[in-house]
Amino acid sequence: MPPDLNLPFVLSVAGAFVTSSVMACIYAWPALRTMPRYEALRLLAAFHAFRFLGMNFLVSGFVSSELSSDFADKVGWGDLTAAVLALVSMAALSWRWPIAIPIVWIFNIWGTLDLLNAYYMGVTKIGNPGLFGAGIYIPALYVPLLLVSHVLAFMLLVLSWTRSRERAV
């Protein structure tokens, strides 16, 4: 095991992923797949509208002043971008814009890559998760929930694309 690996933090993140996945399989997916596609996608996007919370990584005192400013900038601004894309997706889905589904694809791809990049940077550049300070719950709890909800959105997007292709044949 690498000497700088914080096992309690890793187990916390892994537990959040497992629990989020189980809850999604048992409760969220059965309900989402029976909803109209636009409503289900809007519900998942609404969860991401709160990603502006990632901007707190830029607030000294919320996180340690020793936290890399490069990491904090990328996480904070990436999350804010994802929150704006989530809100635009919600509007597009609510008002049935013709480009609503492509907007949701853009949001979902951006949001997923942003979270995965934040984890990658955290693992490779931040050795001590204690530097996250009060923000420790974002990567330990909120990010696993967000990633699982992105998977659910991809499942809805692919499922509806597959169904529309089957109808066309």
Q: Helicity level, as a percent range?
A: over 70%
> Low-confidence segments, ≥5 residues, pLDDT <50?
none
What is the percentage of strand-forming residues?
under 5%
Q: Label the structural class.
A: mainly alpha
Q: Which outline best applies?
A: globular
Count the E strands: 0
Give the tally of structural domains.
1
Topology as a string of helices (H) and strands (E): HHHHH
Distance between the termini: 52 Å
Mean of pLDDT: 92
Number of helices: 5
Question: What is the compact description of this entry?
Answer:
This protein has 169 residues and is an all-alpha fold.
Write the layout of secondary structure elements.
Layout: H1 7-32, H2 37-48, H3 69-94, H4 100-125, H5 137-168
Account of the 3D structure:
The chain has helices at residues 7-32, 37-48, 69-94, 100-125, 137-168. The protein is mainly alpha-helical. It has one domain. The model has no long low-confidence stretch (mean pLDDT 92).
Features:
5 helices, 169 residues, globular
